[in-house]
Amino acid sequence: MAEQTEALGVASGVPGEPFGGASSVPGEPLTCLHSPRPTRLGEGRRGLLAWAVAALVALVLIGVAGALLAPVAARTDFAQANLAPTLEHPFGTDWMGRDMLARTLAGLATSLGVGIVAACASSVIAFVLAAVAALGGEAADAVVSWVIDLVMGIPHIVLLVLVSYALGRGATGVMVGIALTHWPSLARVLRAEILQLKAAPFFSASRAIGVSSLRLVATHVVPHVLPQYLVGLVLLFPHAILHEASITFLGFGLSPEQPAIGVILSEAMGYLTAGSWWLAVFPGLALLGTVLLFDRLGSALRALVTPQEVQR
Q: Is 99 within 8 Å of 86 (Cβ atoms)?
């Protein structure tokens, strides 16, 4: 018995202590004295989950507040035009007396709506093309890879402006343009995941017994790539929102009648020289904060679905 205990101690690196420092007092249960990693892993996951929930709640509140304040954002009062930030108007007012806080929240709600629709459409395109490339044979893989390289070789903003302008601009043109230009990176990730799944023995066995490709996608591919798909979908939102604001600012996106951050920033450029700095500063900071919230949400979800990335 003593020889077995000594052997266990040597294997664990701690002479005389079995299993790396577990208590061996007679009559007491074995307890591990050197296992802080599971605790840190659990604490890290709880912290990441809290960050993800907080970011999601904040984004939902921004969208709801913007939708509710849309009528207030359109209300004009020329008697209160170009007012600096005050308690009554925390973000000040514009040249038509409209409250900039209400306009900013309404603009963020519009940008969130456009970004969500465009990002969802782009992620579906990425999944379909990734599945075709991974499961359709060498010819399909070569064609999809060539299309991915082609789209990634053109700057996003240039291709987005061309697509939006060709479709008559507006919300539809912006959403279609974002959907057609933001899928390549996610498609590459999903293609690699599906190829890894395709090499598994059970996948080959399913094909050997005659299971159809559609059923394989529904029963094996979708559950396997769902975590990566959701993370990629969330990380598409900040790109979609920023690019929507960019082309709207340049005049190729949403119409001036729609409340959007790009419209607000574009209109504010003509009043900065007159000292109305709040017309651009607060909407710009609000846009930056929203993008950072999406980025934090995506990073937290990516760490949650990839346990080895959780270090604290």
A: no
What's the pLDDT band for 211 if we cut at 50, 70, 90? confident
User: What's the Cα-to-Cα distance from 25 to each of 9, 29, 190, 235, rounded to whole Å?
Assistant: 14, 8, 52, 52
Exposed/middle/buried for 263, CB within 10 Å: 0-12, 13-18, 19+? buried
- The CATH superfamily assigned to 40-309 is MetI-like (1.10.3720.10)
Which of 26-30, 142-146, 160-164, 241-245 comes out lowest in average pLDDT? 26-30
Q: What is the pLDDT of residue 19?
A: 41
Question: Alpha-carbon distance 251 to 267, whole Å?
Answer: 11
Question: Vertex 7, ends 4 and 10: CA angle to 5°?
Answer: 155
pLDDT value at 180 more than 50: yes
**Whether 283 contacts 101, CB under 8 Å:** no
Domain ranges for the chain, please list them: 1-34, 40-309
Q: Residues 206, 220: contact at Cβ < 8 Å?
A: yes
Quick one: what percent of the chain has pLDDT higher than 90? 14
